[in-house]
Design a protein that fits this description.
Radius of gyration of chain B: 18 Å
Distance between the termini of chain B: 20 Å
Largest sheet of chain B: 6 strands, mixed
Distance between the termini of chain A: 44 Å
Order of helices and strands of chain A: HHHEEEEHEEEEEEEEEEEEEEEEHHH
Number of domains of chain B: 1
CATH class of chain B: Alpha Beta
Helix content of chain A: 10-25%
CATH topology of chain B: Rossmann fold
Shape of chain B: globular
Order of helices and strands of chain B: EEEHEEHEHHHEHEHEEHH
Number of strands of chain B: 10
Largest sheet of chain A: 10 strands, mixed
Number of strands of chain A: 20
Number of domains of chain A: 1
Strand content of chain B: 15-25%
Structural class of chain A: alpha/beta
Number of helices of chain A: 7
Bound molecules: adenosine-5'-triphosphate, magnesium ion
Largest interface: A-B, 22 and 29 residues
Strand order of the largest sheet of chain B: 6-7-8-3-9-10
Oligomer: heterodimer
C-alpha cells in the first residue's frame, strides 16, 4: 500500500474519497506521460512519509515580508496560526479549507499529484477578495520546509477568489533546508471579470521537494500575472494551467530559474485560449549550471473559436559548464482563425562578442561572465511591478548566481 | 611606445596579416588607410587581444612589454584601447554600470585604488557634456538601440573615461554626421599630448582634417605597403589605391627615410 492510502486513513468527505479513488487509478506520474518525461517522481513515491504537525517554533524571522498585509505561515505544509499575522481585519476573507466544501480538482485528468491533494489536503485557505476591493499590500504565504527525524510531507490546498474588479497581490515563498521533506500544493485562482491577480512565487528549497500546481481561470477583461522564480530545489515541479474564459482576458507568465548543484526544476505550463480576443505573454529564462537540470515545457492552446488571439511565448536558457542540462519544449496548437502567435526557445552559452567587448575594456573574463549572466536574468526580476518584492528577489537571485559562479 | 615586428595573424588557418611592421612613438598620431578587407580591423583587434585571431609569427611590444603574452583585459589595463568599428550591444547592462566596472577593473589590475561611484559619475557627466551626449545614455543598456553615430560617440566616451596611453580607433568616423565628426575629433584631440599615442583607421581623409596625423600608412593584403606624411591621405583620395596596390607608388608622398 502506498503512503497516500496510509495517510488517507482518518480523512473523510467526498473530495477525499474521490481523490483517493482517482489516485489509485492513475498512481504517481511516470515517464510514460509526455508531461513527465524529464522528471522522475521516485524520490517522492518511494518514501514512507509522515504528516507534519504544528511546531513550537520555526526560524522564520528573516523570511517574513515586512510589506505584507497578511502573512500565513506553513511549516512542512502545516498551517501555523501562532506564527501567522495580519489576519484580524484583513481585507481578504480567509476560510480554512478543512471547513470548506471543495470540489475535487482531479476530474478525468491524469494528474496524480492533484489526486493526492484531493485525497489528503486538510491545510490551507479559501481566500476571497470582494468586489471592487483593491489590495495594495500583498498576501504573503510563507512556506518553510524544515523536516524532522522522519521524512515529512504536507498537502496544501489554496483557493483564491478575486471577485469582479478587485485587485490582489499574492506572494508565495518556499524555503527549504537539508531535511527530507515534500510539499504538494494545489492553488486554484479564479480571476473574475475585470479583476487582476498578481501571483508571485519564489522557491529556495535546498533539499526540499515541491510539487506546485496552479489552476487559474481568467474572466472577461481580467488579468492573471504569474511570476515564478526558482532558485534551488532537489525536485521542483511547477505546473500551471491558465484558462482564458472571458473575452479581453490577459495572462502573463514570467519565469526565472537559476540552478546549480543537483537542482531539478521542471516548469510545465499550459495557457488555454478558450474564447476570442484574449492575449497572453509567457517569458521564461533560465541559467543552469553545476549538475542541475532545468525543464521548460510550455504549451499555448488556442481553441476553436478563440479568434483574434494574440499570444507570445519565449524560453531562453544559458548553460554553464558541461554537466548542466536544459530541456525546452515550447508548443503551440491553433484551432482558431485570425490568430497572432509567436513562440521560440534557445539554449546557449553567453554571447562571445559581448564577452570580448567587456574584456577589451579591461573587465577580467570571470567578472565579465558574471556581469553578462546577471544581465541575462535581470529583466525577469524587473518584470515584477512590486518594488519591495523586486528587492527581495534581486538579492536572492544574486546569492544563487554567486553559488553558480563559485 | 608600440613596436610591431613582422606580425602575422590568421583566422581558422587562413592568414590575414602577413608581416606588419609598425612603430608608434609617444605623442604621435598614425593613420591607417587601405582598401576593404585589407586587414585594418584585424590589426586593431589582434593588438587589443581578440580571441578570434591566432598570431603565428612576429612580436608586439608596448613600452618594452610583450603585448602578445597578455589577455585582452590585461592589455586594456596596460593602456591599450580599441574603439570598435562595430560596437557591441550588451542588453541588461547599463552604460554607467559598465563604465564603472571597466574603470575599476583596470585600476585593480594596475594595483591602483578603486574610484568611488561618485567620482566616476562626476567624470562621466563631465565627459558626456563635453561630447554633447544626452544624460539619458547613462542608464541605457550599452549600445542597445543606439544609432550608428551614437554608438561611435559612446566609444569615445569610454575612451575619455579610460584614458589609455594607446588608442586604436577603427573607423570611428564612419556613420557620423558632420557635427558628430567634429565632436568625436574634439574628444580625441582633448587627449592628445606627449604621453598619448593614437592609431586611427579611416577611409576618409576628412577625419584627418580634424585629427591631424603625423604619419599615414597604407595597408594592403595584410602588409603596410607605403607610408607617407599627412599629404598622402589627400593624394590617396585623388588617386585611389590602384597604383600602390600594383607596387608602383609613383609620386605618392612618402616619408623621408
Ligand atoms: N573572424 C573572421 N573570420 C573570417 N574571416 C575574417 C575574420 N576576420 C577578418 N576576416 C577576413 O580578413 C580580411 C580582413 O578583414 P578586416 O576586417 O581586417 O578588413 P578591414 O581592412 O578592416 O576592412 P574594412 O575596410 O572593410 O573594414 C577580410 O577578408 C575578412 O573577411
Ligand atoms: Mg575594418
Amino acid at each position: 500500500m502506498s503512503w497516500v492510502a496510509d495517510l488517507a486513513q482518518g480523512t473523510s468527505g467526498v473530495r477525499h474519497a474521490k481523490g483517493l479513488a482517482a489516485f489509485e487509478r492513475v498512481g504517481f506520474p511516470g515517464p510514460r506521460l509526455e508531461g513527465w518525461k524529464y522528471t522522475s517522481t521516485r524520490s517522492v513515491a518511494k518514501v514512507d512519509w509522515v504528516r507534519a504537525d504544528v511546531v513550537a517554533a520555526a526560524a522564520i524571522d528573516g523570511l517574513r515580508l515586512p510589506h505584507a498585509a497578511v502573512e500565513l505561515v506553513f511549516v512542512d505544509g502545516v498551517y501555523q496560526a501562532d506564527l501567522s499575522r495580519g489576519l484580524d481585519g484583513a481585507p481578504v476573507s480567509l476560510e480554512p479549507v478543512a471547513q470548506a466544501e471543495l470540489q475535487p480538482q482531479h476530474v478525468g485528468s491524469e494528474d496524480g499529484f492533484v489526486a493526492i491533494n484531493d485525497a489528503l489536503a486538510t491545510e490551507g485557505f479559501v481566500l476571497t477578495l470582494g468586489r471592487d476591493q483593491v489590495m495594495t499590500a500583498p498576501v504573503h504565504l510563507l512556506f518553510l520546509q524544515q523536516g524532522g527525524e522522519q521524512p515529512v510531507t504536507g498537502q496544501v490546498r489554496l483557493v483564491v477568489k478575486a471577485e469582479r474588479h478587485s485587485r490582489m497581490q499574492l506572494i508565495e515563498t518556499h524555503h527549504g533546508g537539508e531535511g527530507q521533506t515534500f510539499v504538494n500544493e494545489l492553488i486554484t485562482v479564479q480571476v473574475a471579470d475585470g479583476a487582476k491577480v498578481q501571483h508571485s512565487v519564489m522557491g529556495r528549497l535546498g533539499s526540499g521537494q515541491l510539487v506546485h500546481t496552479v489552476r487559474a481561470e481568467v474572466g472577461r477583461d481580467a488579468t492573471y500575472h504569474s511570476h515564478m522564480a526558482w532558485l534551488s530545489g532537489s525536485l521542483v515541479r511547477s505546473d500551471i494551467l491558465a484558462r482564458l474564459v472571458g473575452q479581453g482576458g490577459h495572462v502573463e507568465l514570467d519565469g526565472l530559474y537559476v540552478l546549480a548543484d543537483t537542482d531539478h526544476v521542471d516548469n510545465h505550463t499550459v495557457i488555454r485560449h478558450e474564447v476570442p480576443n484574449c492575449t497572453s505573454v509567457e517569458t521564461y529564462k533560465g541559467v543552469v549550471g553545476g549538475k542541475a537540470r532545468g525543464v521548460f515545457d510550455g504549451m499555448v492552446y488556442i481553441a476553436k473559436g478563440a479568434d483574434g488571439t494574440d499570444s507570445q511565448q519565449n524560453n531562453r536558457n544559458i548553460l554553464l559548464g558541461d554537466h548542466a542540462d536544459v530541456k525546452t519544449k515550447p508548443t503551440l496548437e491553433i484551432y482558431a482563425d485570425d490568430v497572432k502567435a509567436a513562440h521560440g526557445a534557445t539554449v546557449g552559452q553567453l554571447d562571445q562578442n559581448q564577452l570580448w567587448y567587456l574584456r577589451a575594456r579591461g573587465i577580467p573574463k570571470a567578472k565579465a561572465e558574471k556581469i553578462l549572466t546577471h544581465a541575462f536574468v535581470a529583466d525577469r526580476v524587473l518584470a515584477h511591478p512590486d518594488e519591495a518584492w523586486r528587492e527581495v528577489l534581486a538579492e536572492a537571485v544574486e546569492a544563487r548566481l554567486a553559488v553558480l559562479e563559485g | 611606445m608600440l613596436e610591431i615586428k613582422n606580425l602575422h595573424a590568421s583566422v581558422n588557418g587562413s592568414p590575414i596579416l602577413r608581416g606588419i611592421d609598425l612603430t608608434v612613438n609617444k605623442g604621435e598620431v598614425h593613420a591607417i588607410m587601405g582598401p576593404n578587407g585589407a586587414g585594418k580591423s584585424t590589426l586593431s583587434k589582434v593588438l587589443a587581444g581578440s580571441p578570434e585571431y591566432e598570431v603565428t609569427e612576429g612580436s608586439v611590444k608596448l613600452d618594452g612589454e610583450d603585448l602578445l603574452e597578455m589577455e585582452a583585459e590585461e592589455r586594456a589595463a596596460a593602456g591599450v584601447f580599441m574603439g570598435f568599428q562595430y560596437p557591441i550591444e550588451v542588453p541588461g547592462v547599463a552604460n554607467s554600470y559598465f563604465l564603472r566596472k571597466a574603470v575599476n577593473a583596470q585600476r585593480k589590475t594596475r594595483g591602483e585604488p578603486e574610484a568611488s561611484s561618485v567620482e566616476i559619475l562626476r567624470a562621466m557627466k563631465k565627459a558626456m557634456a563635453f561630447l554633447e551626449m544626452d544624460a539619458g545614455f547613462r542608464n541605457r543598456p550599452v549600445n542597445v538601440g543606439f544609432s550608428g553615430g551614437e554608438k561611435k560617440r559612446n566609444e569615445i566616451l569610454q575612451l575619455l573615461m579610460l584614458n589609455p596611453k594607446l588608442a586604436l580607433l577603427d573607423e570611428t568616423d564612419s556613420g557620423l554626421d558632420i557635427d558628430a565628426l567634429r565632436v568625436v575629433a574634439k574628444g580625441v584631440n582633448s587627449l592628445r599630448d606627449p604621453e598619448h599615442a593614437f592609431v586611427v583607421v579611416t577611409h576618409y581623409q576628412r577625419l584627418l582634417d580634424y585629427i591631424v596625423p603625423d604619419v599615414v600608412h597604407v595597408l594592403v593584403d595584410g602588409r603596410i605597403v607605403h607610408s607617407g606624411p599627412r599629404e598622402l591621405a589627400l593624394w590617396l583620395e585623388e588617386h585611389g589605391y590602384g597604383a600602390i596596390k600594383a607596387g608602383d607608388a609613383g609620386d605618392a608622398p612618402r616619408l623621408e627615410a
